[in-house]
Design goal:
Elements (H helix, E strand, L loop, with lengths): L9 H33 L4 H15 L4 E2 H8 L3 H13 L3 E5 L7 E5 L1 H22 L4 H24 L15
Antiparallel strand pairs: 1-3, 2-3
Helix pairs in contact: 3-4
Length: 177
Amino acid sequence: MDDDTADTNPAADRAELETGIARDIRALTAISEQIGHVFARSNDLRPNDFRALMHVATADAEGAPISAGRLSKVMGISAPAVTYLVERMIESGHLERVPDPADRRRVNLTYTDQGMSVAAGFFGPLGSRTRAAMAALPDADLTAAHRVLVSVTTALREFYAEIPGPAAEQTHPEPGI
């Protein structure tokens, strides 16, 4: 290794990398929120409606479907407020209640076919752009990026679970947050 490329301070380089990743995640969060607001406005959804849809989608993707009671907790809103929200989302055709296959007494929330179609129509082009943006990256980079995002998401969930207030009601961080 020649002297021009040698690391003079690996700890500083590491700190710069971590700071850059944190900055990138904030930027990702900010633009994702902007896109979410456009989707919500274009589908006559309120901000909490879209937040609820994101929690339902995340919980489903992680294999941990979410109930209305759990949705109330992760959103930090009252049971009556989440009931009103869920009823509105069912009436609008975005969500439906489905019995939990493991416990028929429990009812989970899931997207309807119509809700999935609306989301796919809006977010499909974003998915295509995302796949195109990553096409030139080697699998090893994508694997490393996935590990970074999982680690950061875990840290965020742990932090959230430790925040006094609504999050304090949880015993551990869960999917859908």
